[in-house]
Design goal:
The protein is mainly beta and 187 residues long. It is built from three helices and 14 strands.
């Protein structure tokens, strides 16, 4: 695997190193030794999948508070999506900044999302499926989110959202969620 550092500290875009012949190829999706050598999380407790039927389905921007704060590794296994992360770590020089990349079944890129980041995506094709490695169990009392179209963050989504759940549409903006709080201190 090739780990590409991103402008947001701790985040990575991971490129699979394919070994192939006329039959196809083999590549590691996860390797504890390689992740550890790059200083990344190596313990994952769940593997989740999501299928979005329509192009323009937006999911996010989700995160969990401690003690359920989680690392995620996201890969698109069918279709295409634009994956976005936002740094929410108190005191981080990139607090409130975002990064996005296209993940699709052909490029096989993966987004490594550190603890203390919000995560979301919009599908660029119908029938898009994503696979997630997650380092913490779901904590319903720790689940949070940010409004996907918060102008203070300014994510440049590549297309307009067609499908957004009421829950995702009604998350607070960055200023409301973090005004006077230290929600992600120590991450």
């Amino acid at each position: 695997m090739k780990f590409h550092r991103l402008p947001l500290d701790g985040a990575r875009l991971i490129e699979l190193e394919k070994r192939g012949d006329e039959r196809g190829f083999f590549a590691r999706f996860f390797c504890e030794k390689e992740f550890a050598a790059d200083g990344l999380e190596t313990r994952f407790v769940q593997v989740n999948t999501s299928l979005s039927a329509k192009k323009g389905t937006l999911r996010g921007m989700h995160y969990q508070l401690p003690p359920s704060a989680e690392v995620k590794v996201i890969r698109c296994i069918r279709g295409s999506l634009f994956d976005v992360i936002v740094d929410l770590r108190a005191g981080s020089p990139t607090f409130g900044k975002w990064y996005g990349a296209e993940l699709n079944a052909e490029n096989r890129l993966m987004m490594y999302v550190p603890r203390g980041f919000a995560h979301g995506f919009i599908t660029l094709q119908d029938d898009t499926e994503a696979l997630y490695l997650v380092s913490a169990f779901y904590g319903p009392n720790e689940e949070r989110g940010l409004r996907f179209n918060d102008p203070a963050i300014g994510v440049e989504w590549p297309l307009a959202a067609v499908e957004v759940s009421d829950k995702d549409r009604n998350w607070p903006d960055l200023a409301t969620e973090f005004h006077g709080t230290e929600l992600m201190r120590g991450l």
